[in-house]
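Tokens for ATP-binding cassette domain-containing protein. Go.
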Amino acid sequence: MKHIGIYVANYSIDGQWLQKNEEKIPGFESLQSGKGAVFSERVLKKFIEEDRRRDFSELIGAGKRSLRTFSSGEKRKALLDYLLKQNPDYIILDSLFDNLDAQSVENLKTRLQEISKEALIIQVFRRKEDLLPFIERVVFIENKEISKVCPVEEFTANPVSEEKPAGINNIPEAPGAFRNIPKILLKLENVCVNYDGRPILANINWEVKKGQFWKLTGPNGSGKTTILSMIYGDNPKAYGENVLLFGSKKGSGESVWEIKKKIGYFSPSLTELFSRRNTALEMLISGLVDSVGLYQKPTDKQLVLARSWLKTLNLEHREKQVFTKLPLLEQRLLLIARAMIKHPPLLILDEPTTALDDESALKIVRLTNLIAAESETAVIFVSHRKEKGLDPQFAYELCPAENGSKGRVL
Ligand SMILES: Nc1ncnc2c1ncn2[C@@H]1O[C@H](COP(=O)(O)OP(=O)(O)OP(=O)(O)O)[C@@H](O)[C@H]1O
């Protein structure tokens, strides 16, 4: 069996695409006869949707807690387990390692090595480091077409260039200043969280000060999203705990809405919230008025500022184009810029490089580094990957333990 790698850039290939192109991919013919399984974000979303509608998911079976409460990595592992239990003749793995911690990636590589003796593996991947060691042929896809098929040795000998200029320029200045922002923006003091009696966070102490650049890290299920939801979201677990935001205890001073005005936030799932026909320029301006999409006529000043952000991102040619039609990387850059356009005191970027290829990830990293270096905004960057070139000053790591994760500054 010759296992296949499919190296794609910033878009998804789906079952339809594969069917249309199967004859062009050597070794893929077996798809027609055997039993297949597909691991992808899209498939996972269908299971999550089923769980929402029926309060039950085949992925985990009856009597267990809802799939929706699983962490991102836990959901992906549950899907893979479910698919492998069906003993497929071939399995398509699309961006399998996104959202997974380093140890899980290593464990999965070993497990898949075993499975590759019985089943054909077709790995769709965007990051070079993800290539499974038993893949023998690599198919390159550019502009949705197969541009080349080569032996894996040729792929690894001629790595895809990561050194191209990143094409992101200096960031525009702040449109105004936020008043009465204390030096310590965020303070978690002995914060403990349990879900259904299961300890998740144990005595977390963490301080983020003005202008600092942090990476937040920790294995799947260690509690990163839980911490972020206590800061940015309205997770009720924050109330009663010592979570201080901009000087006031969460739940006692400002409303969640007021707090959100001071925090720029980006997570890949945000991209799906925007279904209106706003242009790239309008999307940037919406960050100045704290709305999802733009509903009012922008002022000249707002237009000038948004245009200078387009220049920073090298996306001036996209000004009038509909945001939702743009390539994934460009949507992400625009949404990060939207979150940053006001120069909020705190910017949270939650796994912003998920599902991107190497070159695109470098652009996100460059933009993040520039934001941290050229503004007074404090940045919290969440990622499982060691992102090449990312330059945080500090890292806060969650280390799971029986009584809940402990935190430490690295
Ligand atoms: N509403 C909930 N009910 C029960 N358990 C929950 C709930 N929300 C989260 N959990 C559990 O709490 C733990 C921490 O979840 P969280 O999403 O914060 O982890 P994470 O560090 O962000 O993980 P990942 O890297 O996989 O995204 C997980 O084991 C998760 O299953």
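The longest strand covers residues 184-195.
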